[in-house]
TrEMBL record:
Domain 4Fe-4S ferredoxin-type, chain residue ranges per copy: 156-186
Name of protein: Succinate dehydrogenase/fumarate reductase iron-sulfur subunit
Similarity comment text for this entry: Belongs to the succinate dehydrogenase/fumarate reductase iron-sulfur protein family.
Organism this protein belongs to: Flavobacterium rakeshii
Top-rank taxon, per record: Bacteria
GO biological process, one term: aerobic respiration
Cofactor(s) required for function per UniProt: [2Fe-2S] cluster; [3Fe-4S] cluster
Length: 252
C-alpha cells in the first residue's frame, strides 16, 4: 500500500519524575507517514522537540517487533491502541486519519508507578517472576534431556500459548481492579502443564501469588478486559488454572 502523509494532534502525558504532578500537553505533528510505526511517529515528534530545544518525550521500547513487552502505552483509552492482538510497536500510523487527535498516556495502575512521562516501573512483574517463574535444573551432568520426556500434545500446546506472554502489563492497565491475574496465570500455567514444571508446582503458585498480593495488584472480578486487550491473546482459562493450582497447593 502506498504511504501517504497525515497531520495529527498529540495529547501526551508529561511528568518530570515520579514525585511531580503530571499533565497532558498538546503537540502538532505534520507530515507523518502512514507507513511509519507508532513509535517511529514518537521518534519524529522527539526530533521536532529537540529541534525546538524542548525536552523529548520519554517512552519505553526495546525490540520494536512485539516480543519484549516494553512499549506499554495507553493510546486513545486502550492498552496498545485501537487494533487487537498487537503491541504498540506493531501499531502503524495507517490506523489513524489526517486531522486525528491522539491521546497517549502511560499505564495507569498503583503497582506500576510512573517514572517519567510515558515510562512506568514494571519491576513488580520481575519480582513475581523471581518468586517462582522458573524451573530448577540439576546440572550434575546426569540431567535428563528435556526432549526425552513425553508431553501430551494438548498440554504442550496450552503451555506454549501461555508462554507467549511477554510481560507487557496491558492486562493490569486495562483491568478496573489493576489485577495481575492474567500475567501470573500465564506464568503458572506455562510450567504447571509440563512434567518439568510439576516438581516445584506447589511452591511456585504459592510464592508467585503471595508476591503478586504484596506488590499491591488488585483482585480479579472476571470482567475479562485483560483478555480483550492482551496483545498475545492469553486466555482467561489460565486464571482458572492458576486458581485450581493455588487451591490444591493450599490444601497440600
Ligand atoms: S498476559 Fe498479555 S497483557 Fe498481560 S502481561 Fe502477558 S502478554 Fe501482556
Ligand atoms: S518494543 Fe518490544 S514489544 Fe514493543
Amino acid at each position: 500500500m502506498a504511504s501517504k502523509y497525515i497531520n495529527i494532534t498529540l495529547k501526551i502525558w508529561r511528568q518530570k519524575d515520579a514525585k511531580s504532578k503530571g499533565q497532558i500537553e498538546t503537540y502538532k505533528l505534520d507530515n507523518v507517514s502512514t507507513s511509519s510505526s507508532f513509535l517511529e511517529m514518537l521518534d519524529q515528534l522527539n526530533e521536532q522537540l529537540v529541534g525546538e530545544r524542548k525536552e523529548p518525550v520519554a517512552f519505553d521500547h526495546d525490540c520494536r517487533e512485539g516480543i519484549c513487552g516494553m512499549c506499554s502505552l495507553y493510546i486513545n483509552g486502550r492498552a496498545h491502541g485501537p487494533d487487537t492482538k498487537i503491541t504498540t510497536c506493531q501499531l502503524h500510523m495507517r490506523s489513524f486519519k489526517d486531522g486525528d487527535t491522539i491521546y497517549v498516556e502511560p499505564w495507569r495502575s498503583k503497582a506500576f508507578p510512573v517514572i517519567k512521562d510515558l515510562i512506568v516501573d514494571r519491576t513488580a512483574f520481575d519480582r513475581i517472576q523471581q518468586a517462582g517463574g522458573f524451573v530448577s535444573v540439576n546440572t550434575s551432568g546426569r540431567t535428563m534431556d528435556a526432549n526425552a520426556i513425553p508431553v501430551a500434545k494438548f498440554d504442550a500446546d496450552r503451555s506454549f500459548e501461555a508462554a507467549a506472554c511477554i510481560g507487557c502489563g496491558a492486562c493490569v492497565a486495562s483491568c478496573k481492579n489493576g489485577s495481575a491475574m492474567l500475567f501470573v496465570g500465564a506464568k503458572v500455567s506455562q510450567y504447571a502443564l509440563l512434567p518439568q514444571g510439576k516438581v516445584e508446582a506447589t511452591q511456585r503458585v504459592l510464592n508467585m501469588v503471595r508476591q503478586m498480593d504484596e506488590e499491591g495488584f488488585g483482585n480479579c472480578t472476571n470482567t475479562g478486559a485483560c483478555e480483550v486487550e492482551c496483545p498475545k491473546g492469553i486466555s482467561l482459562e489460565n486464571i482458572a488454572r492458576m486458581n485450581r493450582e493455588y487451591l490444591v497447593a493450599s490444601i497440600k
